[in-house]
Amino acid sequence: KQEVTQIPAALSVPEGENLVLNCSFTDSAIYNLQWFRQDPGKGLTSLLLIQSSQREQTSGRLNASLDKSSGRSTLYIAASQPGDSATYLCAVRPGSGGSNYKLTFGKGTLLTVNP
Amino acid sequence: DAGVTQSPTHLIKTRGQQVTLRCSPKSGHDTVSWYQQALGQGPQFIFQYYEEEERQRGNFPDRFSGHQFPNYSSELNVNALLLGDSALYLCASSLFGGSYEQYFGPGTRLTVT
Question: B30-47, pLDDT tens digit by residue?
Fold first, then answer.
């Protein structure tokens, strides 16, 4: 059974700092990994999708890496801003792929960026 | 281009009642999945629909059922509501059969009293 763990559970940083969020998963046979952002009481916004064959993906100030063999992914946020404050979730899709859409989520990291 | 939409936004029900939640997928998407997110937890997969059939199911009892319509929209039905069913219910859509990312709606907040 796939299990996803995110460390730390909460993180508070001053504005402008670079930071790293961690995600680990127990079964390395994944199809892809997705990072999401969730504002309080709201739905999920997809940030980055990394296919199992990729090592990293970048979008603006965000960079996500994937080490499938070790079961780890990191989300790097450069020059953090107060607007980045939210919960960040990672989710993995099983290696059976194509028709299997079940995402397994971690519990998330609550990020607070202080002005 | 409309994203994933869900209705209603909030809902309050009493134990034992039944509830129906609705989801319209992102334009061009044909696959819908439902998730339950309890407070402070990550979303848990309920089931997935494609071509009007339930294709996959998570570890949820039969009280949870669904439907997909020819226009790809979907409903989630929960019977005999329990206090523990209180959660944010999220709908996600995607294209079937590929490595496509899933897009989530804003969710329906269900409170069972």
Answer: 999 999 999 999 999 999
